[in-house]
Amino acid sequence: MKTFSISLILTLAIMISAIGCDKTDAGPTGNELSGQYQNTFEQDAALMVASLDGIASDSLSVEEGNGLLYMREEEKLARDVYSELYVKWNLRPFSNISRSEQMHMNAILSLVNRYSLQDPVDVNGAGVFKDEILQNLYNTLIVEGNKSVVDALEVGATIEEVDIVDLQKHLKETDNEDITFVYDNLMRGSRNHLRAFVKNLKAQGVTYVPQYLTAAEYEQIISTPMERGR
Q1: For 48, which of 25, 31, 57, 226 is 20 to 30 Å away at the CA?
Q2: Domain for residue 229, yes or no?
């Protein structure tokens, strides 16, 4: 299972700070760009949750179980960061995508319950995580995202990059049809979210530079249109 090291968190903070320095918030907010995405995000996520019951479960390996627990909190991190940044900057992409992330959390929770795992989220409120690495990452991203609109949008793009990389790793660790189904849908959602954040950054006059995806992977995502659920 892919996890964050303390050094990675520090590197992430430095990268985001470097990307965001010397930028202004002049230009359109990007709110006008988000309306076309709202239905796509929410409808696809809802369809994923509704379709999961029709897929049979299988035996669960330790790696598969650990992956589900980690991704449950990683999706919570995305939801919590976007909710906080929406309050700060009042940009619709954060509101729209945070609702999509909640549905992603719900889908993983269905798997957590299906396999009788202990939910790491439990009663933890916004910004609180069982995993110490994710807790530190959340704290770092909130600080960066509160600096400016551009920094906030770059935080969003970075989260989606990390999510894609983690899901790619976890997909290689499972052959369970239900887990594969959810991870495939979550990764498609993250690609769509990344497209939205990059488009909003472009409206700010900023070209986003990928930090975790290869140049080829990133270009393939942003050069193709929004994907619909299967």
Answers
A1: 31
A2: no
